[in-house]
Design brief:
With 279 residues, the protein is of the alpha+beta class. The protein has ten helices and twelve strands. Helix 2 runs antiparallel to helix 3 and helix 8 crosses helix 9. The protein is globular.
């Protein structure tokens, strides 16, 4: 990538769940990108300020509230709209990963249909995902991280992508397979699960498994497991178990993480709940 001036500030991360994916947060004022292309799919938002760029003969303006979506090998430039600059959050997705998503969703090659999306819900999802994979990566399980990523990518392409159907059939999640997964969760509440591990255990791809589990239960595997842990936590606290041992036995990072999750679910802290339900 070539530039006409120095970069004011840019930070890069590599997500542990997908080594080929690049994440960045940049603050630009007078910096301007010359015409360039990317090898990967690029998704970005600006948190303040705005960026203008030329793409396929037209000028586009990326401002807070929008999402930028660029396919591989599409030339574009970029610079600030105003003198006070802008801040951008960007994610690059390798083509091999997007191809896997397309195949698992029973689709052909996936492409973004437009370089600018007006979708506040997906924009908020993207910002949350970006923060979880960068600033909070140490406090998120692989299952939660990949669930968030696949959920976002699937929704993004379903709502704003170009899809070409494939003739292959789509595997389905049976009742027995669903019971198998639930049993694994019940028996391994203190364990860390990975999406691919769960999917392989019942003969599905992780993409098929995530979408079909959510369709069957109304929840992602991560959300389902988290709720199970909290339900078991209530029973443990009612038996008189300490909050510290309960958090450890049920796979929470630490007591602080357990307290926050419990209060978010039940509007009361574990300590106050235990006082209410025990003599």
């Amino acid at each position: 990538m070539m530039a006409t001036s120095a970069v004011e500030r840019i930070d890069y991360w590599q997500a542990s769940i997908l080594k080929e994916m690049e994440l960045s947060r940049a603050q630009f004022t007078h910096f301007a990108f010359e015409k360039h292309v990317h090898l990967d799919y690029h998704i970005g938002v600006v948190s303040h300020g705005g960026q203008r760029y030329h793409h396929r003969g037209s000028e586009y303006r990326l401002t807070p509230g929008n999402i930028s979506t660029l396919n591989p090998d599409e030339s574009h430039n970029g610079q600030s709209i105003a003198d006070n600059g802008y801040e951008a959050l960007v994610m690059s997705l390798p083509t091999s990963y997007v191809q896997q998503v397309g195949e698992a969703l029973n689709q052909g090659e996936l492409y973004f249909s437009t370089p600018i999306l007006d979708d506040p819900k997906l924009r908020a999802y993207f910002i949350h995902l970006h923060r979880q994979l960068t600033l909070h990566q140490a406090n998120i399980t692989p299952l939660e991280a990949e669930t968030l990523l696949l959920g976002f990518i699937s929704e993004l392409f379903y709502r704003h992508g170009k899809l070409r159907n494939l003739p292959s059939s789509q595997a389905r999640l049976s009742g027995a397979q669903l019971d198998n997964i639930k049993q694994q969760f019940h028996q391994g509440l203190d364990q860390e699960f990975e999406l691919e591990q769960l999917a392989l255990s019942i003969g599905l791809s992780k993409f098929q498994f995530l979408r079909q589990f959510k369709a069957a239960t109304g929840m992602t595997p991560h959300a389902y497991l988290k709720r199970l842990r909290l339900e078991y936590a209530k029973k443990a606290l009612m038996r008189g178990d300490s909050a510290i041992s309960t958090a450890y036995d049920l796979g929470f990072f630490d007591q602080s993480h357990f307290n926050k999750a419990f209060k978010r679910a039940f509007l009361i802290t574990p300590a106050h709940f235990q006082k209410r339900v025990t003599p």
